């Protein structure tokens, strides 16, 4: 997808004039941000730039002091995280948050709760409807695990999976929500260069085959420049630049604030 086509594509998610104030500290200062439909967008900036706070506004963990967030045409500002997730906004976390003593399949099935209709009495009574939903959920969980490449580990405890497979399980769990937008918080943290390169191809496959828009917070600039169609840069809570990889790579303000003289090589942490 070219930069020109991104400008004319409908928005999967829009944040308009977002400000977040914690007492006397303004963590995010009037940021406006759009994720075009079925695009791959990255949010970068130095530590303390406001990236995680902004991410948490999008997912409902924080309510903005001012501004609005829309998922498609639906205003989701201030909705609870579980409500936003059920509406189509999935996310992973920088620190892996799996249920270690549940299997990989069970971790994915938990995320599908918002799409099932069985009530507590049906669950306790093991009604035909509940058994059918459980069977369908199990089959869909297996499909998601196969998609991310860990289907053979469906019945293994999550805590026994390798680090890379746990990362993939988090993505499978987020995809089980059937999201319109998938937010990935530092997905290559802890990966070696070879694993990161594989992950770039994986993100493109997620977007193309699952038909979702993807937003990443990522410090590894080699990953950001290779995977992103658009990059937004925050510094001290403000948006200082936005554009394609070449625009960001050559933006003097971004170089000064974040990339430094090393340009796009390696990580900027």
- According to CATH, what is the class? Alpha Beta
* Named CATH architecture: 3-Layer(aba) Sandwich
User: Within the CATH hierarchy, at the fold level, what is the topology?
Assistant: Rossmann fold
Order of helices and strands: HEEEHEEHEHHHHEHEHEEHH
CATH superfamily: P-loop containing nucleotide triphosphate hydrolases
- What's the arrangement of strands in the largest beta sheet? 6-7-8-3-9-10
Helix content: 25-40%
Shape: globular
Number of strands: 10
Would you kindly provide a written description of the structure presented here, covering whatever features stand out?
- The chain has 269 residues and is α/β, with parallel strands linked by helices.
- It has one domain (3-267): Rossmann fold (3-Layer(aba) Sandwich).
- It has helices at residues 3-8, 51-58, 81-87, 104-111, 120-125, 128-148, 163-175, 193-210, 221-227, 245-249, 252-259, and strands spanning 11-22, 25-36, 40-44, 66-71, 74-75, 89-91, 181-185, 213-217, 230-235, 238-243.
- The strands form two sheets. Strands 6-7-8-3-9-10 form a six-stranded mixed β-sheet, with helices on both faces. Strands 2-1-4-5 form a four-stranded antiparallel β-sheet, with helices on one face.
- Strand 9 and strand 10 form a beta hairpin.
- Helix 4 crosses helix 6 (128-148), helix 4 packs parallel to helix 7 and helix 6 packs across helix 7 (163-175).
- The longest helix is centred in the middle third of the chain and has 21 residues, at 128-148.
- The radius of gyration is 19 Å and the shape is globular.
- Mean pLDDT is 86; it is low at 261-269.
């Amino acid at each position: 997808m070219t930069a020109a086509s991104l400008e004319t594509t409908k928005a999967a998610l829009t944040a308009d004039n977002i400000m977040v104030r914690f007492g006397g500290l303004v963590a995010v200062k009037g940021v406006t941000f759009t994720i075009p439909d079925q695009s791959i967008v990255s949010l970068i900036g130095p530590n303390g730039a406001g990236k995680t706070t902004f991410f948490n506004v999008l997912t409902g963990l924080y309510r903005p002091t001012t501004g609005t967030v829309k998922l498609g045409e639906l205003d989701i500002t201030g909705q609870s995280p579980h409500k936003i997730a059920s509406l189509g906004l999935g996310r992973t976390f920088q620190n892996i948050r799996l249920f270690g003593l549940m299997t990989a399949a069970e971790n994915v099935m938990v995320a599908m709760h918002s799409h099932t209709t069985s009530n507590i009495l049906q669950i306790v009574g093991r009604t035909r409807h509940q058994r059918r939903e459980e069977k369908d959920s199990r089959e869909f969980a297996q499909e998601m695990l196969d998609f991310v490449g860990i289907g053979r580990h469906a019945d293994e405890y999550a805590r026994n999976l390798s680090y890379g497979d746990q990362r993939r399980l988090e993505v499978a769990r987020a995809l089980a929500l059937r999201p319109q937008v998938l937010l990935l918080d530092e997905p290559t943290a802890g990966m070696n260069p070879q694993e990161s390169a594989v992950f770039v191809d994986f993100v493109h496959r997620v977007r193309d085959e699952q038909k979702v828009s993807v937003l990443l917070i990522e410090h590894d600039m080699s990953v950001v420049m290779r995977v992103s169609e658009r990059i937004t840069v925050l510094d001290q809570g403000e948006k200082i630049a936005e554009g394609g990889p070449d625009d960001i790579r050559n933006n003097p303000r971004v170089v000064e604030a974040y990339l430094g003289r090393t340009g796009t090589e390696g990580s900027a942490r």
